[in-house]
Amino acid sequence: MNRKVYFLGGSIAILGLLGLLLYGVFYASNPKSIPSALIDKKASAFTVTTFDGKTISLEEFKGKPVILNFWASWCVACRKEAHIIEAAHQKYTPQGAVFIGIAINDTREDSLKFIRRYGKSYKLAPDDKVGNISLNYGITAVPETFFIDKEGIIRYKTLGAVTADSMEEFLENQLRS
Amino acid sequence: MIVDIGYYALLAAITMTLYGILAGTAGILKNNGNLIQSSRYAVLSTFSLVAVSYFVLTYAFITDDFSVDFVAGHSSTDLPLFYKITGVWGGMEGSLLLWEFILSLYIAIIAFRYHKSNKAILPYALIVLNLISFFILFMLIGWSNPLARLIPTPLEGQGLNPLLQNLGMVIHPPLLYLGFVGVAVPYAFAMGSLLRGKIDNEWALVTRRWTLVAWLFLTAGMGMGGQWAYVELGWGGYWAWDPVENSSLMPWLTATAFLHSVIVQEKRDSLKIWNMLLVTATFVLTILGTFITRSGVLNSVHAFAKSPIGPAFLIFIALILTFSLGLLFIRQDMLASKKQEAGLISRENSFLLNNVLFVGMAFTVLYGTLFPLLAEGLADKKLSIQAPFFNSIMAPLAILTIFLMGTTQFLGWKRTSRKMLAKNMLIPSTTGILFMIAGAMTLDVPWQFIFLAGMGYFAGYQVLMELIRAVRGGKKSKGQATQNEEQKQKRIKSLLRNRRKQGSAIIHLGVLVFLVGILGNYFGHESSFTFYPGDEKTVGDYTVQFEKLEESKARNADLVTVKLNIFKEGQHITTLNPAKAFYPTSTQPMTEVSIYRTLKEDLYTSVATINNDGSATINVYINPMVNFIWVSSFFFIVGTLLCLSYKSPQLKSGAKALKQEA
Amino acid sequence: MKKLIFLGLLLFLSTAFSGLQADELDDQVRQIAHKLRCPTCQGLSVKESEAGLADNMKAKIRSLLEEGKTEEEILQFFVDRYGEWILRSPQMKGFNLLLWLAPGTLIFLTCLILFFKMRQKSITTLKPEAINPLNEEELAQIEKELQNLNRN
Hints:
The structure holds 3 protein chains of 3 kinds. Chain A has 5 helices and 7 strands; from the N terminus they run H-E-E-E-H-E-H-E-H-E-E-H. In chain A, strands 5-4-3-6-7 form a 5-stranded mixed beta sheet, covered by helices on one side. In chain A, strands 1-2 form a two-stranded antiparallel ribbon. In chain A, helix 2 runs parallel beside helix 5 (164-176). Chain A has helices spanning 2-26, 76-92, 108-118, 132-136, 164-176, and strands spanning 47-49, 55-57, 66-71, 98-103, 123-126, 144-148, 154-159. Helix content of chain A is 40%, strand content 19%. Chain B is α+β, with helices and mostly antiparallel strands. In chain B, helix 1 packs antiparallel against helix 6, helix 9 packs antiparallel against helix 10 (243-268) and helix 10 packs antiparallel against helix 11 (272-295). In chain B, strands 2, 3, 4, 5, 6 and 7 form a 6-stranded antiparallel beta sheet that branches. A 4-stranded antiparallel beta sheet of chain B has the order 1-10-9-8, with no helix packed on it. Chain B has helices at residues 2-30, 33-62, 69-74, 81-86, 92-113, 122-141, 167-182, 184-196, 202-232, 243-268, 272-295, 309-330, 347-379, 387-407, 418-442, 447-472, 476-479, 485-497, 499-520, 626-645, 649-661, and strands at residues 525-531, 536-539, 542-554, 557-568, 571-576, 579-582, 590-592, 594-597, 601-610, 616-624. Chain C has 2 domains: 22-89, Helicase, Ruva Protein, domain 3 (Orthogonal Bundle); 95-151, no CATH class. Chain C is 66% helix and 0% strand. Chain C is built from 7 helices and no strands. Chain C has helices at residues 2-16, 24-33, 52-66, 71-82, 97-125, 128-131, 136-151. The interface between B and C is large, with 91 and 65 residues.
């Protein structure tokens, strides 16, 4: 009698374990993808000096949707997305969107080389020495891209090379309303 | 062409395994000795076929045959020959082949080693082992095929991960697999005896020996893995509680629990069901560990890429559990223990508590490792569970375990006389408590340190006393100043006869040596700084002088070395050469550490960055007592070998009886 | 003698390394960095990592400490930005209690059940005289047996 209880308990525990593993294999998110804690929160303000010497701050773009991209010249996926962001910039900046690229853990020289090589022309600026901006945005790896709406609220974040579709969908939506 | 032969060999091997299962089953059902005999020989041919396919893969590595996907992904033409040979287990598919290679070797050994002494159980055990082998081979010919072709054939391979180009990492996986796979043998014998439906203690003897073998390899494998992490990963530590590391620790913990509780079964004829459960748990945990390593479900440094073999392993785990527990449930009456008298404070109960602790530790590791999944499933949040969590839960359990280690030997079976207990405990426990109080007052260390050190002292005293007593050979010789030859002979004989006991005492001593290594952590010291050639920095007792940067070529990498002169008390003691290694096949440079080792402490240096202006940022760690960790492996190995060299009288007399029969 | 060796060894262990005193701020930075995971690596803390981001985090911890922030505030600073995920050992509250309490509770309950079972067993199986104080003769006998056992 007593032993049956133990066997039953054991079986339930094992079913739980198997269920958990099943969940892990089929339903759980990729352990490498990390959700941002900042979704639907107000984007933290920053003021930077761009590579061409202009001072910009996030606040001045209130009322416009912002694509905020973190990149570095040493990152491979950044090369892949470079022309994608540039193309989106050419298309949507005239319609009222804002594109900002913050370079992190990069030397000025390498950043400039990268900009020239890929013909980037949107607002590009280096992060400060400590990386305050990237830390405020909880960057885990480059590239990461934040989609900030007109009210200055972060709506999405992508890790890895950003896709043209995701920007298009977001910006069309924002610019139409 | 040759590659195809290797693949066909795998196909033939799986056929032979299947044949072995069928022939064995038929032989048992029809009670036909020839069929059983034939199933034993089938095992031998499986082994040869797997060996062929293993050597074919090795050959493909040596000849840079990049038409094999696995070779293209894990080798390159500039790889040294040695690493080409060992590259076979540098990735998932190849290491699974190594796994099967070892398993089929074990099965072949079993089939011929135990066909006389365990005649009755062997056919059943072989069926169980063949089923396991069948599953692995099934993976190998399908989802995880190491000999799969890559079209078009690339001219150059992607290269072996530079982290794996280290002697420690070369030895570590085979050792670990020898342990992991070794656990399948005790499991097969346990299940075999249940299948047979008649229980004697034969299974416990074989199971115990093979668990010891597996335990030895697991221990050595983990030690080697720690050593690898220490010299290769460059963060100054050796154990990170990473899911993959945990998955080798869990079966180790349950195997340790079994090795203790089987003593109770042997001496007191109880805990039989419990021991079956432990053997099963150990085996399932090795498969679960493989699942964790290979399915990509959990985040880990060592994990292979996410792969489709996860679901297959999951099904395998479910099958094993259903089969084992179902069988155990049906046969539980066979395992009824005799009702034994036992006092509350007795050796039986001490072993019981030992088991609760070891299984508790295994559970904690499993729970902590899988909890991120639970958190995501139930609370929809991502958590990280890393070293600080494990350390804080495991420390109290370790303290209790070490306390038991010092206590159990002085408890009697059935019951313990108070006088005896007082006699053996009084001195070590009072001095131990005094030591702890003194430590707490003078040192600025966390409570865990005080308790670990105190218990270590207590257990150390007891274990050494036990060893000394064993060498002296009991009380009698104490009074006599000299011993005659006869007595000496007797003493040596009894020492040899008791080598299992002495072996375990040596292992326990090893645990304490290990503990000293861990305690050293609490006094560790680290710093990191940027300096220019010619600069000097002081770290602890050492002065580190940056001589120059040096560029060189080594093997298949470009090295940038930071040459450091180390001074202590004004004396030049050594030069250290930490470096960054740039491999053509890898974008990130690798950190090559350089260590000045002494028994008291290691001076461990690694390069963080080499800056454009000629300066270098280096990390310097002082790791006190860390070498005790590696030294302890020596105790574990010697102790286990002593235990293994002992053959129980039961086993011997069994073999003798069989010989007489024959 | 043996005791002396032991005490000596342990005292050596205790005192040999207490002399090291590093820059206090450095140590504080390390202590906090050790509680945060390195976002780009696995298994390692910010302290142990050499990744660029981890360096930034260390610098940030330092500057926050210099501003007079407490350890708790600094950890919260990172949790706010990275989520709970950044902590290497989850906070002891809410759902996470399930993580922290389950192993201890299970082990404790098992011990409790075993204790009562074994006490039951010891009462029912041991003969009454075993519970009464033993006389000299019996004690001597048991001791002899024990020594035999020790030798085996």
